[in-house]
């Protein structure tokens, strides 16, 4: 059994992002980058399935600029067997990424494709669903538990009313939620071993995919600053302000 895992290089979740002065995007100068946390969970789950004897190979995939190799090396250090980078300087939007993944799925024929449910930079939550539609594969999103047996994958996913369990025939697409697992700490020996693992580099043209952006960002702006709180002397004044200023009563 072969598992393909998609990863994305994003601004580290501990970093407070800054908007460029001209409003064209986020300033990434000297900003720490790391693997998208949801994708890290996806890689961990794939490696656990391999360690349990369910899978034979884990392939980590990423798309973007050359430094995305660092993200793939992290996936290899966690336990992926090999990696593929689709290198491009274009602004990759969810549909373009889904098309690139589709081309890789058709080429490498994985039995299971695992993605993070969303990236913390754009929060689109679209790529997994688009990939499923493009490939004509069953999907289970927001997975909090995954079990593979007898050519099927059973996925428990969180919904508004509680939990839902789905049984999908392989091949299938899964997107991961936070409660699925806790990614392991990457050790130095594994980081050194990752440097010797295969990392293949392709281009969108080699895969026959047009990644030209379909959407144009007009402006990026920081959210408005929150105003300071106001102390009131008594409940009567509070109720009055809620009526006249906040207009919630």
Query: What's the overall geometry?
Result: globular
The profile of the biggest β sheet is: 9 strands, mixed
Helicity, in percent?
25-40%
Number of helices: 7
**What is the C-alpha radius of gyration, as a whole number of Å?**
21 Å
| Residue windows where pLDDT falls under 50 for at least 5 positions | none
Which H/E pattern describes the elements? EEEEEHEHEHEHEEEEHEHH
The proportion of strand residues reads 25-35%
Question: What number of structural domains do the residues give?
Answer: 1
So what's the CATH class?
A: Alpha Beta
Determine the structural class based on helices, strands and strand pairing: alpha/beta
Distance between the terminal alpha carbons, to the nearest Å?
59 Å
Question: What's the number of extended β-strand segments?
Answer: 13
Q: Which strand order does the major sheet show? A: 11-10-9-12-8-1-6-7-13
């Amino acid at each position: 059994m072969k598992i393909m895992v998609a990863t994305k290089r994003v601004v580290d979740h501990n970093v407070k992002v800054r908007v460029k002065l001209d409003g064209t995007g986020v300033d990434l100068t000297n900003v720490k980058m790391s693997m998208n946390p949801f994708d890290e969970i996806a890689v961990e789950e794939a490696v656990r399935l391999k360690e349990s004897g369910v899978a034979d190979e884990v392939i980590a995939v990423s798309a973007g600029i050359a430094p995305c190799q660092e993200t793939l090396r992290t996936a290899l250090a966690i336990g992926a067997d090999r990696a593929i980078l689709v290198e491009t300087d274009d602004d990759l939007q969810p549909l373009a990424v889904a098309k690139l993944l589709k081309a890789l799925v058709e080429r490498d024929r994985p039995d299971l494709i695992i993605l993070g449910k969303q990236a913390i930079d754009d929060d689109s939550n679209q790529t997994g669903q688009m990939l499923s539609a493009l490939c004509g594969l069953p999907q289970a999103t927001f997975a909090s538990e995954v079990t593979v047996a007898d050519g099927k994958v059973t996925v428990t996913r969180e919904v508004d009313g509680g939990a839902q369990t789905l049984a999908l025939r392989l091949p299938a697409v899964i997107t991961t939620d936070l409660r699925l697992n806790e990614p392991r700490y990457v050790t130095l020996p594994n980081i050194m071993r990752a440097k010797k693992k295969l990392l293949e580099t392709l281009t969108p043209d080699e895969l026959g995919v047009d990644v030209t952006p379909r959407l144009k960002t007009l402006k990026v702006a920081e959210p408005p600053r929150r105003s300071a709180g106001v102390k009131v002397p008594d409940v009567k004044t509070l109720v009055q302000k809620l009526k006249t200023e906040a207009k919630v009563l």
